């Protein structure tokens, strides 16, 4: 009688050991890694070469002679040393981070609100809203910027006309002349272009929230705010995290909207962000060495801002 329980315990122990050893043996198999090699090779070829070229260029000095085919001499870390002591660079960095955080935060707030609205709207209305968002998202940037520049035009813009008609004196007001109003307009445009992506992503996450769980919480007396923060947000937290990370990266490197608004009439030195500053150094001044150094700095800054999400993913993998 006593040998039976011990035999059962031994059998369960051996089965558990077999289960624990099988995943380890699967991890040691080379087949999954071999299947990943083509994708890794494409990523290295597509992203590795430009990165290496940027690093090499950041260690060189480009001038007038290089425009006539002379090789660029290596100057080591001189470009980086000059940037560290350049107060204008740090002004642009702080300006870019502030704009990035404001735009990304506003985009997340509006996008989550639109996603929650799509969840409660009737089917026909929801489809119309989704098509409208998709059309706004698919519109080419240059085409949409043409419309936005016309809306905020200081001579015949619709925004000034509407504000003046409402009793406010905005006749001839140039929104792009002052840095504060310039970035307000830029933030509105960037948020408008980014909201559809956030709304669709969050709405897809909301579809995984069980209605039965929400109804049970409502029957227990939970308010809408309590159901949202206590049930919905924890379930869709991974979606919110990756979408917020992507928004921070995109808004930190925004270029087209800022450049087109600058061309419409603003002082570039007062409205430069990192993207337009790199363009000004490289294409405008042909200082490709300094422009490459700033590009590497932006890469490091992007990694630093996204480190919290990467650290979270590593912790989830370990657990």
UniProtKB/TrEMBL annotation:
Record field: transmembrane: 31-52, 88-116, 128-151, 180-206, 227-250, 288-310
UniProt organism field: Naasia aerilata
Membrane topology note: Multi-pass membrane protein
Lineage summary: Bacteria, Bacillati, Actinomycetota, Actinomycetes, Micrococcales
The keyword Membrane appears for this protein: yes
Keywords assigned by UniProt, alphabetized: Cell membrane, Membrane, Transmembrane, Transmembrane helix, Transport
UniProt record similarity statement: Belongs to the binding-protein-dependent transport system permease family.
One family name in Pfam for this protein: BPD_transp_1
Localization in the cell: Cell membrane
Protein's name in the database: Sugar ABC transporter permease
């Amino acid at each position: 009688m006593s040998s039976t329980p011990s035999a059962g315990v031994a059998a369960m122990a051996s089965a558990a050991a077999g289960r624990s050893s099988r995943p380890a043996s699967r991890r040691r198999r080379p087949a999954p890694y071999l299947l990943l090699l083509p994708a890794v090779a494409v990523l290295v070829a597509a992203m590795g070469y430009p990165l290496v070229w940027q690093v090499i260029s950041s260690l060189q000095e480009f001038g007038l002679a290089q425009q006539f085919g002379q090789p660029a001499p290596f100057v080591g870390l001189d470009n980086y040393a000059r940037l560290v002591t350049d107060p204008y660079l740090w002004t642009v960095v702080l300006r870019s981070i502030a704009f990035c955080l404001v735009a990304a935060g506003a985009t997340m707030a509006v996008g989550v609100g639109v996603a929650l609205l799509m969840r409660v709207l009737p089917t026909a209305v929801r489809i119309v809203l989704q098509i409208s968002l998709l059309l706004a998202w698919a519109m080419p940037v240059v085409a949409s910027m043409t419309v936005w520049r016309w809306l905020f035009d200081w001579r015949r813009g619709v925004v000034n006309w509407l504000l003046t008609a409402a009793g406010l004196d905005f006749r001839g007001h140039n929104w792009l002349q002052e840095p504060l109003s310039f970035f307000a307009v830029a933030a509105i445009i960037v948020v408008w272009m980014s909201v559809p992506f956030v709304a669709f992503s969050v709405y897809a996450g909301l579809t995984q929230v069980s209605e039965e769980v929400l109804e049970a919480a409502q029957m227990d007396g939970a308010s809408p705010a309590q159901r949202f923060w206590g049930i919905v947000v924890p379930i869709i937290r991974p979606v919110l995290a990756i979408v917020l990370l992507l928004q921070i990266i995109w808004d930190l490197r925004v270029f087209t909207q800022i450049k087109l608004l600058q061309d419409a009439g603003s002082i570039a030195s007062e409205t430069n962000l990192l993207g337009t500053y790199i363009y000004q150094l490289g294409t405008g001044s042909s200082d490709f060495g300094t422009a490459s150094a700033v590009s590497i700095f932006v890469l490091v800054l992007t990694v630093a801002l996204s480190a919290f999400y990467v650290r979270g993913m590593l912790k989830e993998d370990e657990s």
